[in-house]
Amino acid sequence: MMGEMEHKGMPRPNPDAAPLWAWARWVDSKGRAHTRPDRRYSGFRNQYDGLELLHLRVDENRVLCTDFDQYHCVINNWPYAPLDAGTWPPAEYDRWLDEHWDDPAEVKAIQYRANAIVDPKRLPDRWIQACLWTITPHDVADIRPACGKPDTIGNHG
Questions:
Q1: Which of 31, 91, 106, 155 is 20–30 Å from 50 (CA)?
Q2: Which residues have C-beta within 8 Å of that of residue 157, sequence separation ≥ 6?
Q3: Helices (H), the chain
C-alpha cells in the first residue's frame, strides 16, 4: 500500500511513517453502499464500545482508495481480476486465474492499479478503503461514539 501511495504522488512524510486506514464506502447487509456508517448496524454492536468514530473530509490528492475485496489479492500475492469478474461464469473466472496466477510482480502491479485502485470521485458501490499518511484537525468533520443510536449521541465538541 505504501508503494502505491508513493506511486500516486503521495510521498511518505518520514521513513518511519505508516499509512492510516479508513472506510471511504461500506456496504450494509442489504447490499446498499454508504459513505457514512450506520452506527446502529448490528455488525458494530459491542465491538467498538468506548471508541470514537472520526468523520473525515480529506482532499482526494492525499488519499488512495482501493477496493477492499481486491485487497486480499495483495496480501496473498494473487493476480487481480477485473472488478466485474464476480459476474463471470465460474469456469471463465477460473480460467482467468489459471492464466494469470504466475504473472510477474510488474504485471500484478499493473493489474492492481487497474482493478483495485479506485477514483475517489467515482466510488463504486463496493467496500472501499482509504489510506492516507496524516490527519490534520482541518480534516475532521465530526467525532462521535463509534456505536449507538443517533438520538443518544451527543456533541463531543
A1: 31
A2: 143
A3: 2-7, 68-76, 90-100, 105-115
Task: Evaluate whether 108 touches 23 at the Cβ level (below 8 Å).
Answer: no
Quote the cell numbers at residue 104.
510477474
What is the pTM assigned to this prediction? 0.78
What whole-number distance in Å separates Cα of residue 102 and Cα of residue 98? 8
Bridge-partner residues for 26, per DSSP?
Answer: 34
DSSP state of 79: -
Q: Are strands 52-56 and 33-34 parallel, antiparallel or unpaired?
A: unpaired
d(CA 144, CA 153) in angstroms, rounded, equals 7
